[in-house]
Amino acid sequence: MLKKFFGFDKFKGNQLKIIKSLLKGKDCFVIMPTGGGKSLCYQLPALMSEGTAIVISPLIALMKNQVDAIRNFGTEIGIAHFLNSSLTKQEIKEVKTDIREGKTKLLYVAPESLTKEENVDFFKDINISFYAIDEAHCISEWGHDFRPEYRRIRNIIDTIGQKVPVIALTATATPKVQTDIQKNLGMEKAEVFISSFNRPNLYYEIREKTKDVDKELVKFIKNHPGKSGIIYCLSRKKVEDLAEFLKANEIKALPYHAGLDSHTRVENQDAFLMEKADVIVATIAFGMGIDKPDVRYVIHYDMPKSLEGYYQETGRAGRDDGEGMCIAFYDYKD
């Protein structure tokens, strides 16, 4: 099945153990580094199981990315769908028809859509294979990216009332966050799988931020022509200014931050994915769920807010196991 759907010859790390455990009907809690192949742990069992797997995911861009990827593997477009606020009434109707007809193996939902009454009623009537909760650290108030609506997931699952396994997945969870997630989801008895966080292909370097830092960046990028990279800044203004500066130096760079209208954001993200742009200058809003395997460098123009954040952001480099350079600039006040 792995070969048929995804074209891979062998599993990575704990993938096989996790999939077997889930197919046996056990709850699973998975902590696996970015780039370790988390999504395969629920995508493959979903494609092999009776019914529809409900995947709860925090970001619309992330869902769209994954659904497109699965449709590329499958022959049937209805094999994967998402339900979120971006769909029209007619589109929602089409999605529900595909699910009722048993065509859909994976349904991605935002936590907000999961809690809507009409959706809860709909879920009661369909055959659910299991629930997958992606980016599970959003449940914990102790973690980064906390989302209050994530704490309602267990109640909704109980209301829907089908006794099926739950798999929760995250790339970063301190022991405190881990306990909090398991307790909130009522999965204290879950099998826990923790993978190594060492990514041997990533190179880390910390450099002092001098007044010539912008020129240094231009030089670095020009020494890696045609390669994809992400530069993280803390403020939106810095993102805009730096992207302009790089463009003025004949570098194909685009800005990305939460202040841009969604059309521009999607356009810039796609340009980066399709290699029309080499560099994205971004606030940390960029990158959750960006599945671009060949990002060759991640540069922190400003120090990240937390060590977990730094780990996750640099983890976007070298997901194809090729070279990944991670450079952070610090100045005295950091």
Keywords:
37% helix; 13 helices; seven-stranded parallel beta sheet; alpha/beta; 334 residues
Could you explain the architecture of this structure?
The protein has 334 residues and is α/β, with parallel strands linked by helices. It contains 13 helices and 13 strands. The strands form 2 sheets. A 7-stranded parallel β-sheet has the order 3-4-2-5-6-1-7, sandwiched between helices. A 6-stranded parallel β-sheet has the order 8-13-12-9-11-10, sandwiched between helices. Helix 12 links the parallel strand 10 (253-256) and strand 11. Helix 2 (15-23) packs parallel to helix 3. The longest helix is centred in the first third of the chain and has 14 residues, at 60-73. The model has no long low-confidence stretch (mean pLDDT 90).
List the helices and strands and how they pair.
Elements: H1 2-6, H2 15-23, E1 28-31, H3 40-48, E2 52-56, H4 60-73, E3 80-83, H5 89-100, E4 106-109, H6 111-114, H7 117-125, E5 128-133, H8 153-160, E6 166-170, H9 175-184, E7 191-194, E8 202-208, H10 213-222, E9 228-232, H11 236-248, E10 253-256, H12 262-273, E11 279-282, E12 295-300, H13 307-314, E13 324-330
Parallel strand pairs: 1-6, 1-7, 2-4, 2-5, 3-4, 5-6, 8-13, 9-11, 9-12, 10-11, 12-13
